[in-house]
Specification:
By secondary structure, this protein is an alpha+beta fold. The protein is built from 14 helices and 23 strands. The strands form 6 sheets. Strands 3, 7, 8, 9, 10, 11, 12, 13 and 16 form a 9-stranded mixed sheet that branches. Strands 20-19-21-22-23 form a 5-stranded mixed sheet, with helices on both faces. The radius of gyration is 24 Å and the shape is globular. The protein binds '5'-O-(N-(L-prolyl)-sulfamoyl)adenosine.
Length: 440
């Protein structure tokens, strides 16, 4: 992408409304635009990152055996009356009436709707286990939307729902999602720790939140520092091996790790002094096992091997891609701006043409740009006529992880500079060597 033809409305000044660094940087880097309290437009750079996050989430869901669907944002109130949650959900639910005065709502979550889909089609245990997910916008009329997309009112969620014939297989489904979350966050370049958590309005008896530790996090957490050292399973992990998956979960849940709502002083006092970590965390994922809470009142049953009808066991599994974009920045930035992990960077390589209009600089910059683009690399080429200093500042602000600097003095020696965002030092390479570094 040539910056002169792109749309990144960077802000020079720090926006006053932004209280935390990720919100400030997302506004300054022209990633998002607030349209109303807690409601945002995603501008090109923000959308690129959001899509990369969603794609990784999607790949890891698919790998763990979940199947993608797409449910609507608008739901009928009748479904929620069936589960009994219509009244319980209170003011957080945005309620709407259509022209026929039918009660509708903007979905805050989809347990009811997916249960309706399930009960309409699935009649036999032979079709289980089943895990359906979608990546769709949600609306929750939060009392205090704040910190930009970190706590929005409209936000993107990946929500998966598992259906199983009995408690044991339902727990196995929960464990598969647990492990796929470890892998997802690892690929996103963040350390998210699973912690025992409260279930709130979703319900159930077993629940873990995945939290990224950060001072600006909204949750207080207590955890044994040993949990930080555990290895994350690699992509060869076999999701069909229930025992192996349960073993990984056992290792990760053997240490004390809880959010404040479930904190237990007595158990905490058993953790040795030098291992006790009291910190704050950003909740980026939350998984629930709630058995028959929705399937019972909504009549989601299948015929079992015994010929009898069984109410299915369910769990639900959420990740917030829009919140994750902010959380990744919270965990990875410096004074100059964002430092994207390679896996979610909007562009892998940035080219800074220090002197647009200089024949040599223009020619070599374009040549590098064309070669990298042809190799399938996403390149942002700053071909504008801004000062070099301001171009450097923009590249750093938006966090492009690899930068190639093309200047007249370097070119006299047949060299360009290659540097990595967030790291000291730079390499002087010939333009061809610079191209090769990224294409071979
Ligand atoms: C699990 C999937 C649920 O809603 N039902 C379907 C369950 N869980 S949850 O914990 O309430 O939300 C799941 C994840 O969504 C993100 N999230 C938010 N992101 C931005 N702004 C918000 N206001 C917001 N609320 C929830 C979080 O990542 C959360 O873990």
């Amino acid at each position: 992408m040539r910056l002169s033809r792109y749309f990144i409305p960077v802000l020079k000044e720090n926006p006053k409304e932004a209280e935390i660094v990720s919100h400030r940087l997302m506004l300054r880097a022209g990633m998002i635009r607030q349209q109303a309290a807690g409601i945002y437009s995603w501008l090109p750079l923000g959308l690129k990152v959001l899509n990369k996050v969603s794609d990784i989430v999607r790949e890891e869901q698919n790998r763990a055996g979940a199947i993608e669907i797409l449910m609507p944002t608008i739901q009928s109130a009748d479904l929620w009356r069936e589960s009994g949650r219509y009244d319980d959900y209170g003011k957080e639910m945005l309620r709407i009436q259509d022209r026929h005065e039918r009660d509708m709502l903007f979905g805050p979550t989809n347990e009811e709707m997916v249960t309706e889909i399930f009960r309409s089609y699935v009649k036999s245990y032979k079709d289980l286990p089943l895990n359906l997910y979608h990546i769709q916008w949600k609306f929750r009329d939060e009392v205090r939307p704040r910190f930009g997309v970190m706590r929005g009112r409209e936000f993107l969620m990946k929500d998966a729902y598992s259906f199983d014939i009995d408690e044991e297989s339902s727990r196995a489904a929960y464990y598969r999602m647990f492990v796929s979350y470890l892998r997802t966050f690892d690929r996103l370049g963040v350390k998210a720790i699973p912690m025992r958590a409260d279930t709130g309005p979703i319900g159930g008896d077993l629940s873990h939140e995945f939290l990224i530790l950060a001072d600006t996090g909204e949750s207080a957490v207590f955890c044994n520092s040993d949990v930080m050292k555990l290895p994350v399973p690699d992509e060869s992990v076999d999701y069909d091996n229930d025992e192996l998956i349960a073993g990984i979960v056992k290792d990760w849940t053997a240490h004390y790790a809880r959010t404040d709502e479930l904190h237990d002083e007595e158990l905490w006092s058993e953790v040795s002094d030098n291992q006790r970590m009291e910190a704050r965390g950003i909740e980026v994922g939350h998984i629930f096992h709630f058995g028959t809470k929705y399937s019972e009142p909504m009549g989601a049953k299948v015929a079992g091997p015994d010929g009898k009808e069984h109410v299915v066991q369910m769990g639900s599994y959420g990740i917030g891609p829009s919140r994750l974009v902010a959380a990744i920045i919270e965990a990875s930035h410096d004074d100059n701006g964002i430092i994207w992990p390679e896996s979610v960077a909007p562009f892998q390589v940035g080219i800074v043409n220090m002197k647009t209009g200089d024949e040599g600089c223009d020619r070599e910059s374009s040549r590098i740009y064309d070669a990298l683009t042809a190799a399938g690399i996403e390149v942002l080429y700053d071909d504008t006529d801004q000062r070099a200093g301001s171009k450097f500042a923009t590249m750093d602000l938006i966090g492009v992880p690899n930068q190639i600097v093309v200047g007249p003095r370097g070119l006299e020696k047949g060299e360009v500079e290659v540097k990595r965002r967030g790291q000291e030092g730079r390499d002087n390479l010939s333009p061809d060597e610079a191209i090769n570094r990224f294409t071979t």
